[in-house]
Amino acid sequence: MELELRGIRKEFPGVVANDDVSLRVRSGETVALLGENGAGKTTLMNILYGLYTATAGTVLIDGEEVVFHSPSDAIKAGIGMVHQHFMLVPVFTVAENAVLGDEPTERLGWLDKRRARKAVRDISERYGLNVDPDAITEDLPVGIQQRVEIIKVLMREADFVVFDEPTSVLTPTEVDGFFEIVNTLKAGGKGIVFISHKLGEALEIADRIVIMRRGRTVAEVLPSEVTEEQLAELMVGRPVDLVVDKGRAQPKETILAVNSLSVLDDRNRRVVDGVSFEIRSGEIVGIAGVQGNGQTELVESLTGLRPSITGTVFLNGEDITTKSPRAIHKLAVAHVPEDRQRSGLVLPFTVTENIVLDSYYEDPISKGIQMDWSAARERAERLVEEYDVRTPGTEVLVSTLSGGNQQKVIVAREFDRDVRLVIASQPTRGIDVGSIEYIHSRIVEERDQGAAVLIVSSELDEIRALSDRILVMYGGRISGEFPGTASPTEIGLAMLGSTSEAEAS
Amino acid sequence: MTTTTTAAEIRIRATPEERRATAVGVTLIFLAAFVFWVFGLGVESGSVSTFNLSLPGAVFADLVWAVNSQWLAYAVALILAFLGGLVLRRTHIRLTNLALAIGLGLLALAFLTWAASGKTFSLVGMLKSTVVLSVPVILGGLSGLMCERVAVINIAIEGQLLTAAFVGTIVGSVSSIWVGLFAAMATGAVLGGVLAVLTIKFRIDQIIAGVVINIFALGLTSFLARRVLGEVQDLNSPGRFSSFKIPVLGDIPVIGPMFFDHNMFVYVTFILVIFVHFALFYTRWGLRSRSVGEHPRAADTMGINVFRTRYRNVILGGVIAGFGGAFLTLAQVSRFEENLTAGIGFIGLAAMIFGRWMPIGVLGAGLVFGFARALQQKLGILGTPIPSEFLSMTPYIVTIIVVAGVVGRARPPAADGQPYIKD
Ligand SMILES: Nc1ncnc2c1ncn2[C@@H]1O[C@H](COP(=O)(O)OP(=O)(O)OP(=O)(O)O)[C@@H](O)[C@H]1O
Ligand SMILES: [Mg+2]
Question: Do B159 and B302 belong to one domain?
Answer without folding.
Answer: yes
